[in-house]
Amino acid sequence: MRNPLPRPIALAAGATTTAAVLQRAAFLRHCVLALVAAVAAVGSFGAHAQAFPTKPVTLVIPFAAGGPTDLLGRALAQSMGASLGQTVIVENRAGAGGTVASASVARAAKDGYTLLLHHIGMSTAPSLYRKLSFDPLKDFEYLGQVADVPMTVIGRPDLPAKTPQELISYLKREGKAVNLSHAGLGAASQLCGMLLQQAVGVESTTVPFQGTAPALTALIGGQVDLMCDQSMQTVQHIKSGKVKLYGVTTRERLKPLPDAPTLREAGLKDFEVVVWHGLYAPKATPAPVLATLNTALKAALKDPALIKRLDDVGVVVVKPELQTPEGLSTQLSSEVDRWGALIRQAGTYAD
Fold first, then answer.
1. How confident is the model at residue 347, as a pLDDT?
2. What pLDDT band is residue 45 in, cutting at 50, 70 and 90?
3. Residue 244 is assigned to a structural domain of this protein
4. Residue 309 lies in domain
5. What mean pLDDT is predicted for residues 178-207?
6. Is there a single domain that holds both residue 183 and residue 327?
7. Which residue of 48, 228, 277, 348 is 20 to 30 Å from 109, comparing CA positions?
8. Predicted pLDDT at 345
């Protein structure tokens, strides 16, 4: 690089002393200005080159503590924090089927320090809510898919039906006399329940609760008849006998519940629900920051402790090609279309 400083000015023969002093003063002033500019440039470069992250990162969970997405988020936060070299703080912002948290992250600073872990509900929000203050397809940067959580169809301990086939007959016979609980509008349990009713060809009485925990408590206590919810939340209650298991919603049986049939085996051939989860950042977050976060996500999803923890409750870490911005973008777009058609058919909306 060429020297930015000017060459000393040669004095002409016979120049006066005053002229010489002025020339030297101008030269020194130019040198000082050039030095200040150089220091400022170095400082600016250092600021841009500063490593990310330099402080804790917040992972926003759009549901209450203790629920399936919260459990997944806390496991992910621990592993990602180890990779990033910073604490990843989990913050629960429940409300309106996850839209409160999603809107807040969409408006957050575009610096990578506020992230969102959301499930299938990200794809249903545009159809469920007539007024939505964010656009899932336009207001976020996609970091990658995280994990797929199977659903389980469970009943109160004393429900008369004993097998999946008997449950289907029971639903058809009893109709609206059957109370089907869920964790609130937009929750995975509500969506799975909608699909179940459509697959069987019945209309049950749905009973919404403010969260998975109270919905599950009501089922265990016999106040409601049936529920469809994520295996992360239900496996322990199934194994303890607190609820009756009728089937799982995946193509294959689950490792922690090897004796439980799939609903496809029970005769509902097209019935399949997997609650996928994705990691998001606010739109326009700098590309280098996104790259760092995606690297940390991929490293976390290779963590044997995380994989074991999820495997014990039937949760499957997605394949590496889905742990990418492209993998999440494709999934979200296709699911928006899929659930939009179902929700319009069911006529379920929120203002």
1. 65
2. very low
3. yes
4. 57-149+280-346
5. 92
6. no
7. 277
8. 76
